[in-house]
Amino acid sequence: ARTYEFVSPGVYTKSAPVWAEVADKAGKVKTSEGETAYKAGDYLVSNNQDGTDAYAIGAEKFRELYDVAED
């Protein structure tokens, strides 16, 4: 896909931006596959600036996988 860069066989890096915020309370986010539950402190991530194509990810995993974009 256009949003991934080849690193080595079977390894790719996502190169498209995502929008994320820390959840202040537990809840559920609607995903393309259904719903994902999250807890306070997890990240709500969207592949689109308008909040669509969203998912939740734990804070530790988010920090392992994502870098803050430079303006």
Characterize the structure shown.
There is one protein chain. The protein starts with a strand and ends in a 6-residue tail after the last helix. It is built from one helix and seven strands. The strands form three sheets. It has a three-stranded antiparallel β-sheet with strand order 3-6-7. The model has no long low-confidence stretch (mean pLDDT 90). The longest helix is centred in the C-terminal third of the chain and has 7 residues, at 59-65. Strand 1 (4-8) and strand 2 form a beta hairpin. 10% of the residues lie in helices and 44% in strands. It is mainly beta and 71 residues long. It has one helix spanning 59-65; strands at 4-8, 11-14, 19-22, 27-31, 34-38, 43-46, 54-57.
Write a compact overview of the structure shown:
By secondary structure, the chain is mainly beta.
Provide key terms for this protein:
71 residues, mainly beta, 3-stranded antiparallel β-sheet, two-stranded antiparallel sheet, globular
